[in-house]
Amino acid sequence: MPRTVLYLLLVGVAAATLLPLLWVWASALRERTEIFAQPFALPTRLYLGNLIEAWTNGHFGRYMLNSFVVVVPVVVGTGVLSALAGYALGILRVPGERAMLAVFLVGYMMPFQAIMIPLYFLIRALNLMNTYWALILPEMALYVPFGIFMMRNFFREVPRELLEAAIIDGCGALQALRTVAIPIARQALLSLAIFVFMWNWNIFLLPLLVIQRPEMRTLPLGLMYFQSRDTSDWSLIAAGVTIMSLPIIAFYLITQRYFVRGITTGAIKE
After folding, report:
1. What is the pLDDT of residues 158-181, one digit of tens each?
2. Class of CATH domain 46-264
């Protein structure tokens, strides 16, 4: 394929991806009358009233706090468990490795819709409804299988001589993981953190299932505040989506170079 055609194709894909997001951001900075009069026009002036109203009257400040309270433990917990299990399966080669990996992959391939009803009854039986733990624990369980698969494949690419040298110097298995393997796997862990952050930040069905108290809503669930059965406030919905997108974009921009390196150094290569 000629390089010019390839570049044009990439530009088209980028435009198809970015234009809807740019339209939402532009709608968040326009007054309601402008949106309904000319939906696809650029803002005639920057109007911050929608963002302010979404943050205050829409309680998006509280919803963002709830999202961070959930996403930080999920990202950290998934990274720790995935690193430990991936190290055991990729470096130590424990007995029954293939069987355990198959079990983890079944958990990864299982759609959430297939388990959400028994999960709801389990959370209710444990008296975790309307708590942060009702979101943190299931989400970690959903993401850890992917993390184990990713970290296991990365650790298989780590030269065993480095770990053997650390063990000869007196390091135990966990100390070798902490001092040798984790520093090498930092880029892969950051790539995993970006994946988990994005998935967790945007998750909607699980909070809808286990959270009924308005003050416990996360950001995706909080967008329902601007929509009723008969009408929708599109300007505030656009403002809510804009507020919701900024942290994840900032997180990616900060860690993008580690993300690219982690993906291209065998992090998800079998």
Report:
1. 777 777 777 777 777 777 777 778
2. mainly alpha
